[in-house]
Amino acid sequence: MSRRSRLCALAAMLLVAAAPILAAGPDGVDSPDEITFHEDVEPILQRSCQGCHRPEGVAYGGMKAPMALTTYEESRPWARSIARQVEAKRMPPWFASDETHGQFTNERILSADEIDTILTWAKTGALRGDPANAPEPIEWPTGWLIGEPDLVLDLAEPFWVNDDVKDVNISLKAELITEEMLPEPRWIKAIEFRPGSDVVHHVVGSRIATETETPGASGLLGGIAPGTEPFYLPEGAGRLLVPGTQLYFSMHYNKEPGEGTGRRTTSTRSRRTFRPERASMC
Ligand code: HEC
């Protein structure tokens, strides 16, 4: 018998011996492996939920997740609600329909097994499990998700969303990119938008051609909407940004109208970020 098949035979014998122990709990009642927070659920929350559900919370598109799910204490009270949301596929937010489902970049979905694990956990008392088996906590970045930006742009002028307004769609000028801000043309590597007020629903960035710009280099330049993340260009690709470029932010503001609901919508947070590193075009 080869070493490998001897090992297999040994494993099979061990399994047979262990079978009665696995099948029955201490009180003799069948107890399938327990689903616990630290062993089974926490890794799923880390991968698919904590990006938004953490104390610092990410306000993607102005929508901040209402509670943190980074510890057992934070998650336990939400167990039933978590089960309802993942079963209905409302969480994590992902809007591609099943019919057109293909392979997407930055896909944010749970597998059938993961959903099943969460549902079983909630149904079986949302057990804690052994903290010694918990995965290492994730160190989430604070501040910009793309790292320290090389260029940060705000709206050229503040925009006021009136009390009586429910929706406004408007294209607003960003600060002009001067030579002091960008001494030489650079390739954009990543873009992150941070809404400067809670009435921002989504933003789409675009630029117009200028005399100095390479022909055909105009067009859409990033954006943010509920559930989106920073935009990274693939390795080896970049978008050229030249001094003198005028960007526009196409804004959708949304809120319930009413007295005192008006907002000034530019602030230190209402900024757009690039990290124009050199990248070769492919
Ligand atoms: C992209 C950000 C994002 C991700 C990722 C995300 N959530 Fe959420 N979650 C939100 C936001 C924003 C809300 C509030 C939505 C609303 O009020 O309509 C929310 C709401 C919820 C609620 C309902 C809270 C309530 O007030 O009733 C639950 C439960 C929840 N999320 C669980 C999860 C779980 C579990 C995951 C991972 C499997 C997850 N979420 C992933 C952003 C996110």
Label this structure with key terms.
single chain; 282 residues; alpha+beta; Jelly Rolls; four-stranded antiparallel sheet; 5 helices; 14 strands; 21% helix; disordered N terminus; disordered C terminus; binds heme C
Q: Can you put this structure into words, describing what you see?
A:
This protein is α+β, with helices and mostly antiparallel strands. It folds into two domains: 33-133, no CATH class; 151-274, Sandwich (Jelly Rolls), CATH 2.60.120. It has helices at residues 3-23, 37-48, 72-75, 79-87, 112-123, and strands at 59-60, 63-64, 151-154, 160-161, 167-173, 186-188, 190-194, 200-207, 219-224, 231-232, 239-241, 247-254, 263-264, 271-274. The strands form five sheets. The protein has a four-stranded antiparallel beta sheet, with no helix packed on it. A hairpin with a 2-residue loop joins β1 (59-60) and β2. α2 (37-48) packs across α5 and α4 packs antiparallel against α5. The chain is globular and about 65 Å long. It binds heme C (HEC).
